[in-house]
From TrEMBL:
EC number: 3.6.5.4
Family: Belongs to the GTP-binding SRP family. FtsY subfamily.
Residue positions binding GTP: 105-112, 187-191, 251-254
Name of the protein: Signal recognition particle receptor FtsY
Localization terms from the record: Cell inner membrane; Cell membrane; Cytoplasm
Record carries keyword Lipid metabolism: no
SUPFAM superfamilies: Domain of the SRP/SRP receptor G-proteins, P-loop containing nucleoside triphosphate hydrolases
Positions of the Signal recognition particle SRP54 helical bundle domain: 4-83
Reactions catalysed according to its record: GTP + H2O = GDP + phosphate + H(+)
Organism expressing this protein natively: Sphingoaurantiacus capsulatus
One matching Pfam family: SRP54_N
Membrane topology summary: Peripheral membrane protein
Gene behind the chain: ftsY
Record function comment: Involved in targeting and insertion of nascent membrane proteins into the cytoplasmic membrane. Acts as a receptor for the complex formed by the signal recognition particle (SRP) and the ribosome-nascent chain (RNC). Interaction with SRP-RNC leads to the transfer of the RNC complex to the Sec translocase for insertion into the membrane, the hydrolysis of GTP by both Ffh and FtsY, and the dissociation of the SRP-FtsY complex into the individual components.
Amino acid sequence: FAKLRAGLSRSSEKLGDNLSSVFTKSKLDDAMLEEIEEALIAADLGPAMAARVSAKLAAEKYDKAVTEAEVRQVVADEIEKVLRPVAKPLEVVAFPRPQTVLVVGVNGSGKTTTIAKLAHLFQEQDYRVMLAAGDTFRAAAIEQLQVWGGRIGAPVISSKVGADAAGLAYESLEKARSGGFDALIIDTAGRLQNKQGLMDELAKVKRVLSKLMLSAPHDVVLVLDATTGQNALNQIEVFREVAGVTGLVMTKLDGTARGGVLVAAAERFKLPIHAVGVGETIDDLRPFDPKAFAEALAG
Ligand code: GDP
């Protein structure tokens, strides 16, 4: 929790800076409510959240004295209300085996790192995890996953650069199944420049996996980079369409003032949020805790 709080400190500070300039008057009036709404929108929390906080404050405190701490408490409560229903840490379920997790997202979002962190999280629960270097387009991505696999002691199925990603996915599921692995985590390409190409590739990967195992892939996890702010919302839209996303992980919350965008994403898409990344090391993935997140963000 300390790490999450530290990670979100920039987002929280930004919200604080935006809010403190509001408290120039002693009593809550329309102008102040409007400024509070603007502060929340500037902190990437989204217009719906801003409107709700404003309505709640108006109902409780109109024409009365109100402090920044009170406003922050209302914000924290409202954030938690939005996040609680979507908080769903990614778990290895009892059946079927292996649980197949397809990880999607644009290049640079933190996919490879998140895969390693997730695998590590599963390993800590005594599950055996296999990785597949399904971003066959980028040599660096294949190498990086191999390095991570070596570090955490998870086998990595890979192919030559340019090989068919679906073929590799098929092979990895076969191996994970015959080897009795509990989970298989598959990396994918993230070339959003060629949306149709990416859509075709991901559809094919999913098709071959389900050929081998009807329920696979069990999870399609979209990795989002918090530093891209509102852009994360567009990425959700696109990847929902091209990959049928079932849940989200947001990375780099430690290096940005834009953590509020996760709340806007929850509000708009209502997709499960599995975990958040708060650093570059293997332990820097936190199962998503709505209360801790709301408190860290609202300060
Ligand atoms: P990919 O291209 O999507 O596979 O992205 P990578 O996993 O290679 O990550 C891109 C960069 O982001 C690397 O330098 C990672 O160390 C860094 N990164 C990933 N997750 C986090 C995070 O939660 N916090 C920080 N600060 N950096 C991260």
